[in-house]
Specification:
7-stranded mixed sheet, Rossmann fold, globular, disordered N terminus
């Protein structure tokens, strides 16, 4: 890996080093969001059980907690750029978790095709060099599940079409690409019971009635399930 890429990795490590050290309100939000993310993963893999699953950019492990509890994969692995995130994941003592490693944000420290499925949940929008990141996921895994928010405010902004194009141009074969609204539980956590219910209803209705227009008017998430060979 070049000196420039290593420098980018060090910058991100410095930025996120202590990010997960102290619990705050965003911790509960991430926990709620993880439930929906794993629902999407389960839907995408269609009842299959990957033998080895890698969570790339695993944060403090909330998605791993859900994957472990629901037995989505026989063995779980994680790489994370934040040292505090790695510590948080290890502290959870998840029964199916086999290994968690600190990485530089680009180079995944595992051999080619070591995993049946690699996931990156709300990570790609923060990555400076997207195709380097995606090609590394493609290298280590047979399938990939990528989830991103369709909203401004991150390094990268996506639509369903640009996400599909990015994945395809990174050597992945997109098998499914889907837009989903945030869950009712998530909306109610953020906005209260009544307002959250109304916001969830509006998002779902708009997406059903005007699927091409709704993502330009409101925030949604998108996920893509890809073959990496």
């Amino acid at each position: 890996m070049s000196e420039e890429k290593q420098l980018v990795g060090r910058q991100y490590q410095d930025l996120y080093k202590g990010y997960y050290s102290n619990a705050d309100r965003t911790t509960a939000k991430r926990e709620i969001s993880a439930v929906q993310s794993v629902n999407c993963i389960v839907e995408a893999i269609g009842g299959r059980t990957p033998g080895k699953l890698l969570d790339v950019g695993a944060g403090d492990g909330n998605v791993l907690v859900q994957l472990d509890a629901r037995g989505v994969s026989a063995e779980l692995y994680a790489v994370e750029i934040s040292a505090s995130g790695v510590d948080a994941i290890r502290s959870k003592s998840l029964p199916r978790l086999r290994d968690v490693r600190l990485f530089d944000g680009y180079k995944i420290p595992y051999p080619d095709k070591h995993f049946d499925l690699a996931i990156a949940v709300h990570v790609l929008e923060h990555v400076e060099h997207e195709r380097l990141f995606l090609r590394e996921i493609r290298r280590v895994s047979r399938y990939a599940h990528i989830e991103v928010p369709l909203e401004h405010g991150h390094i990268n902004f996506y639509t369903k079409q640009t996400l599909r194009s990015l994945l395809s141009s990174s050597g992945m074969s997109v098998m499914e690409c889907k837009i989903v609204p945030s869950s009712l539980t998530y909306e109610q956590y953020l906005s209260g019971r009544a307002k959250g219910w109304l916001k969830n209803l509006v998002r779902k209705s708009a997406l059903t009635l005007a699927p091409a227009v709704a993502p330009w008017l409101m925030v949604y998430n998108a996920y893509a399930y890809c073959e990496c060979d």
